[in-house]
Every structure is written in structure tokens, then in C-alpha cells.
Amino acid sequence: MNDRIKRVYYPMTESGFYILFCLQTPQHGYGISQQVKKMTGGCVTISAGTMYGTLSKMEKDRLISIYSEDDKRKLYQITDLGREVLTNEISRIERLYKNSRGENIDA
Amino acid sequence: MRKTFIHFFTIADYKEEENWLRSQHRRGWQFVKFTPPCFYIFESCKPQDVIYRLDYKNSKRAKRYTDMANDFGWEYCGEGLGWLYFRKARNIIETENEGELFSDNQSKIELINNVIKTRFFPLCIMSLAFLLITIFSFPYFTSHLSHNLVLAFSIIFGINTAVYIFLITYCGNKLKKMKNKYKS
User: Fold this and answer.
1) Do residues B76 and B114 share a domain?
2) Mean pLDDT of A87-93
3) C-alpha distances out from residue B156 to B122, B133, B148, B151, B161, Å
4) Residue A46 falls inside a structural domain
5) What integer pLDDT is reported at residue B69 of this predicted model?
6) Among the three residues B78, B99, B120, which one is the final residue of a domain in this structure?
7) Pairing mode, if any, of strands A74-78 and A64-69?
8) Burial of B101 from C-beta contacts in 10 A (0-12 / 13-18 / 19+)
9) A105 lies in a domain?
10) Chain B contacts of A45, Cβ < 8 Å?
11) Record: contact A30-B68, CB cut-off 8 A
């Protein structure tokens, strides 16, 4: 993982995190937005422009790749690099969560 | 029935443009086409509250985007100078974000950065080039043309320079202000 990826994706935006998380199974843009809406109980919604912009950027940075495409939709899925970024982000969130509850992280 | 409206919006006025298109639709004029630099073709329609949203893509591969926006309930209704025009009827919008193309500040800032990089900077370079050409060609004009022509050219150059200076300061300030608003 190079420095640019680290700079851009640590920490990730909330939309970025949910998009990458959802792409552990292949999905298209609108499908991701529906899934995010459902799993967050409507707390997080991702609009069309933000979705397209984030997907394009992640595809360019090779965090995700095209799983399949027809003339209407592209299905994306996470890559190995994307998985690495996601795992790091999840540990960061777990640390935040533990610390927020007054727990310390063992070195 | 079709009608052409003339309205000039700078690269920093896309929010105003969205509101203007919405108000036209409310009056029974739906947007059909934009022809640069300032011609808007409208068609008469049933007055309705329809939200218009613009995105700036500056690339030819927008088909994927318009298809995806369509999934989100946006009707793609035209393109001009890199701007994409979308609309959605107000009554099918349930949450605030459904009426927006951008749901987080970062994507709003990215749009502004893209406009600055591909439109504002070229505008500055063009203005500077124009100014330099004017200054360096002035001795030629004064020695080869009649007094009246020199005066006429000077006035035109003067107006042009003023327009460029106005555009650069206006757009520069406004884009910066918008960016700061989304940052805080």
C-alpha cells in the first residue's frame, strides 16, 4: 500500500467506508445505497453523485474492480488492496469504539 | 411551445442556476437544452415543483453516471460545457438527500476543486494571455492605425480587461467561500 492511498483513505469518509464494506459482495451503485440505507436504519444515505464519484475514485485507485457489466449497470467488487484498506479502517473504528467506552488497547 | 431564455451564469453560479431552472418549471417552463454560452431552451409544460441539480464532470464518459443517476430517480436532461443537468419531481422525494446529488461535504468540495482546476485556472491563464497580447500589440496599433481606431480598440480592450478582472475576482471569491462553507 503506497503513501497516497494511506493519505486519501485514512481515515475514510463515512460514505467511503460503507461503499467499500458493501462491496465485499458484488453490487451496483444503487444496490449499495439501498443496502446502506437498510443496514443503518436510514441514518446514512448516499446520493447518486457521491456514489458515482466515490466508486470512480476507488476504481481508479484499485480498491475495487469491475465484477461484471452490461449496457446499463456496472457491478463492482472489492480487491485485495481494498480489503487491506477496509481491514485497517475497521481496526481504527474498533479502537475508537473501545477507547470511547473507557477501555484501553493492549500494546 | 418552445421559448429561448437568455441568462448568464458564471462557473460559480451553479446553485443559482439550479434554483432558476426550478422556478421556471414552477411557472410551466421545463428545461430542454442549454446552448453555450447563455441560451436556455424551454418547453411549456404543466407547472410543477421539480428540483434541478447540476454536476460537473468535464469528461465524455458520462453515460455510466447518467444511467446510475437514473436508478436513483434522477432524469438526465442535458449537458453543456461539462455540466450535467438532472431533475427530479419534488413529490417523489422523501428524505433530504434524495433531493441532492451529493450527500457529503467531501463530494461537494471535490466538485468545486474540479471546477477550479479545469475552468477557473484556464480562465486566469486566458485572461493573462489576453492582457499580455494587448500590452505588446499596443505600440503596433498606435503606429499603424488612425487615432480614432486606436481609441476604439483601447475602449474594447479596456472593457474586455474589466470583464476578465470582474469574472476572476467574482468566481475566485465565490468558489473559495463555498468551499469554506462545506469545510466547516
Assistant:
1) no
2) 95
3) 22, 14, 12, 9, 9
4) yes
5) 96
6) B99
7) antiparallel
8) buried
9) no
10) 95, 97-98, 103
11) yes
**Torsion angles phi and psi, residue B78, rounded to 5:** 145, 175
- Which member of B65, B95, B106 has the closest CB to residue A52? B65
Q: How confident is the model over B120-138, as a mean pLDDT? A: 89
CA distances to A5, B75, B94, B138 from B144, rounded to whole Å, are 60, 57, 68, 10
How far does A9 lie from chain B, in Å, by closest CA? 13
Q: Which of A45, A46, A48 sits opposite B69 (nearest CB)?
A: A48
- Name the pTM for this structure: 0.90
Residues of B in contact with A28 (CB under 8 A): 68, 71
Show residues of chain B in contact with A33, CB under 8 Å: 72
- Looking at residue B104, the DSSP 8-state letter turns out to be S
A91 close to B (CB below 8 A): no
CB contact under 8 A, B72 and A30: yes
Contact A49 B106 (CB under 8 A): no
H or E element, residue B54: strand B50-56
Task: Based on the fold, state whether residues B55 and B88 are members of the same structural domain.
Answer: yes
pLDDT tens sequence across A29-83: 999 999 999 999 999 999 999 999 999 999 999 999 999 988 889 999 999 999 9
How far apart are the C-alpha atoms of B172 and B184, rounded to whole Å?
19
Min CA distance, A48 vs chain B (Å)? 5
Edge-to-edge order in the sheet of strand B50-56? B50-56, B83-89, B75-80
Residue A12 forms contact with B (CB below 8 Å): no
Residue span of the structural domain in which B82 resides: 2-99
In a domain, A88, yes or no: yes
